[in-house]
């Protein structure tokens, strides 16, 4: 942990199921934005941003610092950290959420409001599928995460005027992306039939065909 600020704030949390189903996915994790988390660290007439850092759990504890010399925020990219294997990278930057006017989760049921609610309430880690391959991309790159991999996440509050970290949360609990299913293990039968049931169904179908054939043959022979 970064000892320069001795963080005591709870780390990022997974989004509520009613806002993000199937979370995490193979390559993304939806997190709740830090509403009211940094209020005690805000000063009037100052401009702030929230930086989100991501790191694979397998990275060493000594490489988990998110502040550089002089208290400046770490600007490591996903490429420089091998996707978070070597330490944290900056995955997203956004404004401090307004604690006085949080989005109403009930609005997520309104088709006219759901997009705004999700954008204001959640941050989707791994949501940019093009930035790694775009040579003209100059924003913070938030590329897809690695499937079946455990990550940790952290929010930091950055003073835009002084360019230093004013506060930060703890690292999140470990969050694992989903595992890719092998094609031969995907059940494509609507009724989830077992192998034995398939064999029995096939045999019965053959018997029914033979029975019908015999019946038709007897009818034709009689005629």
Automatic annotation (TrEMBL):
Transmembrane intervals: 198-220
GO biological process: urea transport; water transport
High-level lineage: Eukaryota, Metazoa, Chordata, Craniata, Vertebrata
Keyword annotations of the record: Membrane, Transmembrane, Transmembrane helix
Name of the gene encoding the protein in the UniProt record: Upk3a
Protein name per its UniProtKB record: UPK3A protein
Protein source organism: Nothoprocta pentlandii
One Gene Ontology cellular component: plasma membrane
Domain of life the protein comes from: Eukaryota
């Amino acid at each position: 942990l970064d000892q320069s600020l001795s963080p005591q704030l709870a780390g990022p949390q997974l989004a509520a199921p009613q806002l993000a189903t199937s979370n995490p996915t193979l390559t993304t994790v939806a997190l709740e934005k830090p509403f009211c988390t940094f209020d005690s660290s805000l000063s009037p007439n100052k401009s702030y941003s929230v930086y989100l850092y991501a790191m694979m759990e397998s990275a060493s504890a000594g490489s988990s610092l998110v502040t550089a010399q002089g208290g400046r925020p770490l600007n490591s990219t996903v490429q420089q950290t091998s996707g978070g294997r070597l330490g944290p990278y900056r995955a997203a930057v956004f404004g401090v959420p307004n604690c006085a006017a949080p989005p109403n989760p009930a609005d997520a049921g309104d088709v006219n409001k759901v997009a705004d609610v999700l954008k204001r309430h959640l941050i989707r880690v791994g949501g940019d599928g093009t930035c790694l391959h775009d040579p003209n991309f100059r924003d913070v790159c938030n590329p897809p995460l690695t499937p079946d991999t455990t990550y940790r996440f952290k929010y930091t509050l950055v003073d835009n005027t002084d360019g230093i970290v004013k506060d930060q949360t703890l690292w999140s609990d470990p969050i694992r992306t989903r595992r890719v299913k092998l094609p031969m293990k995907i059940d494509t039968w609507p009724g989830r039939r077992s192998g034995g049931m398939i064999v029995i169904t096939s045999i019965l179908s053959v018997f029914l065909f033979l029975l019908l054939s015999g019946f038709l043959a007897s009818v034709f022979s009689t005629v």
